[in-house]
Write a structure and sequence with these properties.
Layout (H helix, E strand, L loop, with lengths): L5 E6 L3 H13 L3 E7 L2 H8 L6 E4 L2 E2 L2 E2 H11 L4 E6 L4 H10 L3 E4 L4 H12 L7 H11 L8 H5 L3 H11 L4 H8 L3 H15 L4 H10 L4
Parallel strand pairs: 1-2, 1-3, 3-6, 6-7
Antiparallel strand pairs: 4-5
Helix pairs in contact: 1-5, 6-11, 8-10, 8-11, 9-10
């Protein structure tokens, strides 16, 4: 897991929003600005010279679709992870961006500090998603798994919630066990119980369920 300064590339055509993102990066001790672009052409010029850790990408750009850049990064800069920042919260935009390679998707009405948290979460192996976006993905990619009622979420123990937070941040079973000072067998057992309580069958669906309900 990367513990150094995270190099961030911003691709945002709205000047006020871009300045706000620049200020966010500049003021955060764990982030550094790798470049700031107002369109696809500027982004490509910057990427010819620099390799960011994270690219914060808007979808509606004046000279093209941000999804084009996401797909290019997936192929040419696989070590650069992409966090989408957009006003588009419909399923079509979400699915296209995720299928192109985006690892996170936050709507622009998200608090600015949540974008900084999302960038760090990406570097830790997590997937920052606005709740509305998580619902789209759960419906699209886990059609047989329904959103659990609040009563089922509330049945999670404090330890199970702690384990959920660990795995949502990209920690492995062994890393989670070490951090919590318990055995890997105990962690694995708790994960099975979490899946059962949330009526899901994989880590992504469990994380989405917990994020929808506000636990992580």
């Amino acid at each position: 897991m990367n513990t150094g300064t995270i190099k961030v590339l911003l691709v945002e055509d709205d000047e006020a929003m871009r300045r706000e993102f620049e200020s966010m990066v500049a003021s955060h001790p764990d982030l550094s600005l790798c470049g700031s672009a107002a369109n696809l052409a500027e982004a490509r010029l910057l990427l010819a010279q620099k390799t960011p850790d994270v690219a914060l990408v808007d979808l509606g750009l004046p000279d093209g679709d941000g999804v084009e850049l996401i797909a290019w990064l997936q192929q040419q800069r696989p070590h650069t992870t992409v966090l989408v920042a957009t006003i588009f919260g419909d399923e079509a935009h979400v699915v296209r961006a995720i299928e192109a390679g985006a690892r996170g998707y936050l709507l622009k009405d998200t608090a600015i500090d949540e974008f900084a948290r999302g960038i760090k979460l990406l570097q830790q192996g997590g997937a920052p998603l606005s709740p509305q976006i998580a619902r789209h993905l759960l419906k699209r990619f886990s059609p047989s798994e329904k959103i659990s009622p609040r009563s089922e979420i509330d049945s999670l123990t404090a330890r199970e919630i702690d384990i959920l937070r660990h795995i949502s941040q990209g920690y492995s079973v062994s890393e989670t066990a070490k951090n919590m000072n318990i055995s890997t067998h105990t962690v694995a057992t708790h994960i099975k119980n979490i899946y059962s309580k949330l009526a899901v069958h994989n880590r992504v669906a469990a994380i989405i369920q917990a994020r929808i309900q506000g636990f992580i």
